[in-house]
Structures are given as structure tokens and as C-alpha cells.
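Sequence in, structure out.
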Amino acid sequence: MTDGVLLVDKPAGVTSHDVVARIRRGLPKGTKVGHAGTLDPFATGLLLILIGRATRVQRFLMKQPKRYETIARLGYTSTTGDPEGEIRPGNMPGEELELPTGIITQRPPAYSAVKVGGKRAYALARAGEDVEIPEREVLVARFDLEWREYGRAKFVIECSSGTYVRSLIMGLNDAYCVELRRTRIGDFDVADASEERLIGLDDALAFMPAVELDTEDAAKASHGAAVPGHAKGMVRLRDEQGLIALAEPRGGGTLKPVVGFRA
């Protein structure tokens, strides 16, 4: 099997790109390799590495909800929201911490990978330019305090894609992340990380409903033609041989393939 997803437990001190490059070197020349969601160099935890045709479904995997564990230093600020920034004394948050949940408005940190005018925000910030990043709505399903002692606190956060944990912690006034670990992406858990096991595309996309096709419709779908069917969102089109394509609902009770996996 040459197409699928690897669950990697990224260590601190390396970039997500470093992990992709290392894995690419161990694969046949020309194999496409990517990832579904960057982790900062200081962060650890689950990284989804996409091999071969799995790179075609990057956007769907990136939209999956995330779970993080983070340890914050209280009473100090960091220009980057993590240990790599300029650290300064600040105000110690009160005993009753406000931990927002639900749909909230958040501004990504200036030192983030968000693109501003075609350039990465962190590149502009490091060059000394003022960075204005638009606010965005994100969903924080869980924001729990696990413990607090000696000016530090541990939190567990479950949130939508696009949420910046550093911003959540900086919002405690004053605090920053000293450790950050991603423990879950959708149904994938870091406890299952193994570079020896490649998860097939069909299994990796099991969060999408499956529609089974007969031989005639399977042939149509494999060539990108719409097939009869009803769905509320993106679905997997399958037959006895496995995954054919990802399809979205179109008018007239049809499903139109938008990502194909068969030649």
C-alpha cells in the first residue's frame, strides 16, 4: 500500500516540514508527501503525514476537530505566546480563571503561519513589520483546568480547526504556553502513533458516510461522472474493490465526484 496516512508523534525542536522531509527520504523517489496541520517547533504530538494520493484529501483532514494539552506559565507574557518569544513579567491571573467555550472570536498571534498579503505573518513580524490579522470565529468545545500550582497551570482544550491555543492562553492575562501537545485529530489519537503502520485512505476517511455503488455507477464515478444518490455533505463512493472517490451532493439527486482515486 503506497497511499494513506501515518500517525506521527512529533518531538519538540523540529518543524512539521522537517518530519515530512525525513519521511519523504525513506520513500520511493517522486512519492508525494504532505501533512494535515502544522505544529509549532516547540510543540509535540499528533501529526498526520499524508502519503501518495492521501495528499488529495488534505483539506478534509485539516478540518477535523483537535484536542490539546498545554502547560502555561502564569504572570508572564511572551511576544510569541510560547517560550521562543521575549519573556516579560506581567500580572498574575486571579484564582477564578475565565475559560471561554462555545463559538468565540479570536485573533491569531502575529507569530503564526497565517498568510497576510501573501506572506506568512511570522515572517512579517520577525522583520519588524506591524501585522494586522483579521479576527475569526472558532469553536472551543472544552477548556478545562487540570491543575494549577507554583505559577503554572495545565489545561485540556478541544476545539475546531483554526483555533490558536496560544491565543487562548494569552487571553488569560497574563500567561503563555511553555508546553503544547496535540493529542487528538478527529478520530485519530496520538496514543496510536506509529510510523510502521500506514492507514489506508478508506479507513482514514471513515468520518465521512459511505455510499456503495453497483458496477455500472462505479465505472461512471471512476471517470468523474455524477451518479444517483442523496447526501447532506461529502461522502465516500465505494464498491466491492474499495474507495473510488469523494463526492458532494448536486441537484437532481446526484453525487458528483470531486476527488478521484482511480485512474
